[in-house]
Amino acid sequence: MRGQARHLQAARRGAERAGGAGVIELRPQTIEEARAQLSQLGREKKTCAFLGSGTKLMLGALPRTDAQLRTAGLARIVEYEPADQVVSFEAGIALAALQNALAKERQRLSLDPPFAAKATLGGIIAAASSGPRRMRYGAVRDLILGVSIVRSGGELARSGGKVVKNVAGFDLPKLVCGSLGTLGLIAAATIRVHPLPEAEASLIVRSLSSEQVPQLLDKIRAAQIEPAAMVASRTGPDRWDVAVLFEGFEAGVKQQEAKLRAVAPADRCDPWADHAALRERGELRLKISALPTALPQVESELFSRLPGARAAWYPTLGLGFVSMDAAPIAAELEFARRSFRVVVEAAPAGSTLDRWGPPPQSLRLQKAVKARLDPEGLLAPGSFVGGI
C-alpha cells in the first residue's frame, strides 16, 4: 500500500511539472500495476478516466477527473493461435500494430473504424467504433469473445474467452462495448479474426437521389449480391454516390462485380480514403441512427438543413455521419431528434450542444449496471449518456 501511495505522489509531481493542473497521470506497464493504481485511487475516492491514443476524446462529455490513466504501456499480444482465428491482447495495443502482426499469418481484424492508423483496441471497444465493413463482419461487440476489466477498486474481472469470471452474471464483453470507460479499465480482450481476402474491388454507382439509394439496395439483395461494405456519399442536394466493396476469392469478386453492373451502371473507384477523412475531420461531427430505409427523411430533416456539411450513409445499417465546420446547429439538432437519434461525436471546445439528446429507454438499466460495477461512481463520471 505504501508503494502504491508513493507511486501516486510521484505521478502527481509529474503531472504538475507537465502543467497538468494537479491531475494525476498514470502510465502502468502491466495490468497488475494498473490494478494497484486504481486500488489506491479507490481508497482515496479519487476519480479516474482512461486514455489510449486520444482519438475518441471528443465523444461524450469530457470527464473532469482527479487522475488519468494512459494505456500505452499495456500493448502486448497475449496469445495468438492462427488456426483458431482468435487473438488475445492488452487493450493499449494500436489497431495498426495488431493488424501488422496478424498479416504475417494472412489474417486480419475485420474492423475499419475511424482513426485506424492511431486508435487503440481499448479505445475502439470503449467507443464501440466501427466502419463500413461492419455490414459483413459485424461491429466490435459481434467480434469480441472475452474481456478483462479492472474495476474502480482494483478488482480484476474476466468474462468470456478462455477464462470466465462473470460479475453478477453480466455479459462483460458486450457491456463494455460503447461504455466509454465508465464501467472499468478495459485491460485485455479476446477477439475473432478473419483470413485476409485474396482479392477486393470497389465500384461506385453515381448520382442517385435519397429515394433511389434504398431502391438500389433492394436490387442488390434481389440479385443475391453480397458486398463487404456499402457507403453512400452526399455530393450535393439530394445527390448521392454509392460505393460498393467486394472481398473474397478472385473469381467470386469478379462474379459479384458483374452482378452489380447488371443491376446498375457502376465504375471502378477507390473512395475509402475520402470516407475516412469525413469520419475523422471537421470541427463538428454527428452520428445519426435511423431505419435503413429512412435516408429520404434524414435528407430532408437534417442533411438539407446543414449547408456546407459533408455527409455519408451506410444503407444497410441505417447509420449516417456528418462532418462540418463549427456552426450554430442547436435548432437543427432538436428538430432532427424528433425523428431519429443524433449523437454529437465531436464539437469545438466550449460547445454547449447536447451531446446525446433525449435519454434512451434503457437509461434506468444502464444506471443500474454502472451502480453494480462502479458503485462509487469514480470512473469517467458524467461522460456517458444521462450523466453516467
Structural summary, described in words:
- With 388 residues, the protein is of the alpha+beta class.
- Among the domains are: 77-195, Uridine Diphospho-n-acetylenolpyruvylglucosamine Reductase, domain 3 (2-Layer Sandwich); 203-346, no CATH class.
- It is 30% helix and 25% strand.
- It has 13 helices and 18 strands.
- The strands form 4 sheets. An 8-stranded antiparallel sheet has the order 14-11-13-12-16-17-15-18. A 5-stranded antiparallel sheet has the order 4-5-9-7-8.
- A hairpin with a 4-residue loop joins strand 16 and strand 17.
- Helix 1 crosses helix 2 (31-43).
- The longest helix has 16 residues, at 2-17.
- The model is unreliable at 1-20 (pLDDT under 50).
Helix content: 25-40%
Count of DSSP E strands?
18
For the sheet with most strands, the description reads: 8 strands, antiparallel
Radius of gyration: 22 Å
* Overall body shape: globular
The total of helices stands at 13
Amino- and carboxy-terminal Cα gap: 30 Å
Unreliable spans: 1-20
Strand proportion = 25-35%
Calculate the mean pLDDT score and round it.
Answer: 89
User: So what's the oligomer here?
Assistant: single chain
Strands of the widest sheet, in order across it, are 14-11-13-12-16-17-15-18
Class by SSE composition: alpha+beta
Task: List the keywords.
single chain; 388 residues; alpha+beta; Uridine Diphospho-n-acetylenolpyruvylglucosamine Reductase, domain 3; eight-stranded antiparallel β-sheet; five-stranded antiparallel β-sheet; 18 strands; 30% helix; 25% strand; disordered N terminus
